[in-house]
Q: What sequence folds into this?
């Protein structure tokens, strides 16, 4: 990877600039996430924070050392996170508490449409937290409402380990990854007949939260982080239609955090969606819910989905 000049913006910073200027078409909630980032930079001293480019870049660079494991076009190539994905990591790992040096954010909510690299973001990040975050005995969990969904992110992370230099450091089995040097473990869990209680988590990927009929898993895994100084709950989901499920109310809270009506400095949120349902008929707006459109996601795929939607 070419080394950037000292005055050159990091891709995460450039993404924020491009959203702010309108160069990147973005929905209201992504714009609010970007404005919150700039506001937090301005108010960092007052809030007791510092921003560490080094810490943010360290996490991003770790992800870029791993390789894609799926798709004939991408498998075997080094991961190059999209600018929007880097912006998320930039926030989560860049903002630190000034007095302790611990990360500011303890919880993150990312909502984005399908086929936009959700797992390609969560899997490398989980490996960073278990292997490179210098946390002894780190417990990393991939939690979903059903078993097969819980395994999707875990299995991708396991393949990334097996197809990289990490294979020399980690032991992989069907249901676990172990990094014995730090006593770290990685396991998939589901609320489908599995016990998610009694954990001491350092990092939790709560996958497809919209599919969880209750908030039991969320509550248990959030509570499992309390003994960790820098534990993080990473909630990542596609949009759901079940308004009675807890994710709907949770997202409404995240929106209030983004618009400033609720102050929650330890929670990060970014929501990729259309501003209005009518925007679905204008392909220029599809990027609002699909930030990978034009890079890893081809417009032709969305056009086929749109035609099917119209026909149905």
A:
């Amino acid at each position: 990877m070419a080394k950037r000049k000292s005055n050159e913006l990091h891709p995460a910073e450039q993404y924020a600039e491009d959203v702010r200027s309108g160069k990147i078409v973005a929905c209201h909630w992504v714009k609010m996430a970007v404005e919150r980032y700039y506001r937090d930079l301005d108010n960092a001293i007052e809030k007791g924070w510092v921003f560490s480019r080094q810490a943010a870049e360290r996490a991003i660079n770790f992800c870029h050392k791993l390789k894609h494991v799926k798709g004939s076009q991408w498998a075997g190539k080094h991961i190059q996170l999209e600018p929007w994905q880097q912006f998320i990591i930039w926030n989560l790992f860049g903002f630190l508490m000034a007095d302790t040096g611990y990360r500011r954010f303890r919880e993150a909510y990312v909502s984005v449409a399908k086929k936009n690299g959700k797992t390609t973001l969560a899997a490398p990040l989980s490996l960073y937290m278990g292997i490179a975050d210098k946390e002894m005995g780190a417990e990393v969990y991939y939690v979903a409402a059903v078993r097969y969904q819980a395994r999707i992110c875990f299995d991708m992370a396991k393949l990334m380990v097996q197809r990289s230099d990490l294979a020399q450091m980690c032991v992989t089995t069907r249901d676990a990854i172990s990094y014995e040097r730090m006593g770290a473990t990685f396991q998939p869990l589901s609320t489908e007949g599995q016990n998610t209680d009694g954990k001491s988590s350092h990092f939790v990927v709560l996958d497809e939260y919209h599919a969880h009929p209750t908030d039991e898993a969320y509550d248990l895994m959030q509570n499992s982080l309390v003994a960790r100084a820098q534990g993080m709950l990473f909630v990542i989901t596609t949009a759901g239609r079940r308004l009675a499920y807890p994710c709907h109310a949770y997202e409404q809270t995240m929106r209030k955090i983004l618009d400033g009506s609720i102050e929650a400095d330890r929670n990060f949120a970014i929501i990729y969606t259309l501003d209005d349902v009518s925007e679905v008929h204008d392909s220029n707006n599809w990027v609002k819910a699909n930030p990978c459109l034009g890079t890893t996601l081809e417009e032709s795929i969305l056009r086929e989905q749109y035609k099917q939607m119209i026909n149905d």
Summary: The mean pLDDT is 93. The longest strand covers residues 184-190.
